[in-house]
Amino acid sequence: MQKVLIITYYWPPAGGPGVQRWLKFVKYLRDFDIEPIVYIPENPNYPIVDESLTEEIPAGIKVYKKFINEPYGFARFFSKKKTKQISAGIINTKNQSGLEKLLLWIRGNLFIPDARKFWIKPSVDFLQDVIAKENIGTVITTGPPHSLHLIGLELKKRTKIRWITDFRDPWTSIGYHKKLKLTKASQEKHKQLEHLVLNEADKIIVTSNTTRLEFSNITPKPITVITNGYDTSPGSSVTLDVDFTISHIGSLLTGRNPLNLWKALSELIQEYPDFKKCFKLQLAGVISSDVLESIYFYGLQSYTKLLGYISHHEALQYQRKSQVLLLIEIDSEETKGIIPGKVFEYMASKRPILGVGPTNWEVGDIIAKSNTGKTYTYPQIGELKSTLLQWFQEYKKEQLALPLAEVEQYHRRELTAKLSKYLAWE
To answer: What sequence ranges are listed for the domain Glycosyltransferase subfamily 4-like N-terminal (predicted)?
Structure first.
């Protein structure tokens, strides 16, 4: 049986989408004669915790741990709230205090590629013995944080092991890089490290075709796309909401703020009394202040229910019983290749997806080809409003459904089968 070492920062009890990708791969790799061994930090700084995910770790999986020295502990001395937000990726560019600007500058310019850089050297020293002891042939590093790829880079130099990098998100082209107040020297350092990792790795995995095309301009190394996906959820059957619920599951960070959608919903409430009576907007996860301000500005406060952070199990339940599922991405060129992990769980729930995102958003093709909903760009208020009204009319007739949905190729086991073939070495 082939042994594979997976180096990841996010692992249960970490919550959020970042942990689920490799948790699910680990769950199914044994079905393809591959034994996964996992390496994680001993004392991580997880901005979101979901204890329920620990129940999904397969029995008997070896998990090695090593202490990590993270600077967030020091930063919390100045501002616990701001430090947690930055760690979670919440960077609000409006009304930044001097302290917040300082923390961002420090994060962007003193910790390259990221704040987990101090885990690199101790991990390399520790894992050399693990690789020899376990007779491991392949190492996989998954980022962000992209400092984990530098662990793989050094292990390859020292041990000549086969090394695969997995990019859940892009590196230098990701949107929040512009908010980190990077100096030109820091920007160049990121690009150098990105180029080095992409050209030293034996193989590369990405989650979107957009990232594959971007990386193919940097390296000739093999690149394959393995998206995120959905898993079979045991759980009891659920009953659809009585109300016309439109639910967004997951954080709505700064920038994910489709004013056209809030305006369309406001107009529907004003124009159709029955819509006003039945409509409910449900938001689960962290919601940035500017998004809430916009929602309330359009008179939707009394129709909005804030669920806060919910467990993954609860998220699946809400997805299955909501009438419509909302998917929102920042309107920018950099985000057209971002495919949120939850989109596949949305698809598996067989509830109509309403997407709002950038022009040429890759998610739009996925949703269209799978017959699971419709996506619009930010200015398309007329078309978006018509779709909502059509779905509402179908809801009133108890006919709002997706009879032609095709989602099986995105099941986690099917994706793991694809991964297992990519792990084969000639």
So the answer is: 125-233
